[in-house]
From TrEMBL, chain B:
Example GO molecular function: transmembrane transporter activity
UniProt KW Transmembrane helix keyword: yes
Name recorded for this polypeptide: ABC transporter permease
Keyword Glycosyltransferase: no
A single cellular component GO annotation: ATP-binding cassette (ABC) transporter complex
Keyword terms: Cell inner membrane, Cell membrane, Membrane, Transmembrane, Transmembrane helix, Transport
TM regions (residue ranges): 51-74, 190-211
Subcellular location: Cell inner membrane; Cell membrane
Membrane topology label: Multi-pass membrane protein
Domain ABC transmembrane type-1, first and last residues per copy: 17-215
Species of the source: Mesorhizobium atlanticum
Biological process according to GO: amino acid transport
Amino acid sequence: MNPMGGFTAQFAAAFLITVSLGLVSGSLGTVMGLLLAMSKSSPASRFKAVVTAYTTVVRGVPELLIILLIYFGGTIFASKVAGRYVEVNAFTAGVIALTVVFGGYATEVFRGAIAAVPAGQTEAAKSLGLNAWQRWAFVIGPQMLRLALPAYGNLWISLFKDTALVSIVGLTDIMRVAFVGAGSLRAPLTFYLAASSLYLSLTTITLLSIRLAERRYPALGR
Amino acid sequence: MNLSLMFDAMIVLPSGIVLTLTLTVLSLTAGFLLAVPLAFARAFGRPSLSLGVLAYTYVIRGTPMLVQLFLLYYGLGQIEAVRASVFWLVLRDPFWCALLAFSLNCAAHTTEILCRGLLSVPKGVVEAAAALGLKRLQIARLVTFPIAFRISLPAYGNEVVGMIKGSSLASTVTLLEITGMARQLVSSTFAPYEIFIVAGAIYLALTTLAVKATQFLERRLSIDGHPTRRRKVRFRPGLPRHRTTTPVP
């Protein structure tokens, strides 16, 4: 007998939701982190203080609080804009919240990696006549990404773990299905163990892909 | 933005700080005490022992803390033996449940942090200690651990911050720490911006304080480069007590 009744199919659907939530917010967060790190690293940056404030706040406040703020605050904001009661979709709120969190951490990781690329590289690229975009794309970028890879990989692992928090605002991800199933079949142990094994497989896959990427793209010149 | 609501929140929410800090400090302490032997086992133990510890840290670090918390809070009651035992009196209470989950989680993270520190202690130092005739326990206590602790202090600071932030999960098992109070307040006033922003500011203050404290400890314990200036203890010969009398002209 299947101890989880009809919940196996729900778990499969929830797994996809968790994965897509992670992938979407991770990708958006990466883009955000790259842009902010570049703007923070350029010597004549006007937003340096703003970016620093952003990363400090995001890294010092619980993820759960950010998710709650964006979900409930977003509902009020959307209702005000639309002029009637609009509830923000939990998935959208989750994507926004996790992107904000991931972007904050990624900014710091990339900024550290950019600082670790020797200054001589930029100077050499300048003396070769490369413009700013070419310098980022061909000289600093590739070296910086390799340096950032281990820390960046850890961010993905914590991101997949943080997706579980979005279940608190009602997204039917793995955690939510486990919660509902545990309540309705009165078998919390089975359901939460199943959920943890799903999360564990997710983080294991992430870890293995990072290890593979690290082996494929080791840091240059060390 | 409603400023008077924010002001109300500023008065109400700090009463949750005590619970947040209690949970954080207790789980950090329990986690650290568990982590020290586990880190030694993981770093220098027999392969089977080391793998066992790795399995523990891997599973704990690979699953969300929320799942672990729910597993303990809702799941343990399902086992008849637990319900019958004396532990049930403790585990029935959400506070102890949360504390147990946080401590186990913290122990896993701290173990890995300390293990990395232990493995990066220079071999020569340990050999020198052995050559001086120190026993294994003495080497671990006097040489390896202090050096490893200094190496892992920055990473441990991150863990402290992570624990302060992680304690917000206690609100999901009905505990009224800062996040729990904020959620309760939001459900009665429905002013999420004002109240969650105040709660976030309190957390930010706590984490900033933790970061500063870690940095202070790092500077205090650092041994490379600038040795800490100690008060000079040296023998001062007593000055002759007798007054030199100048001859009156």
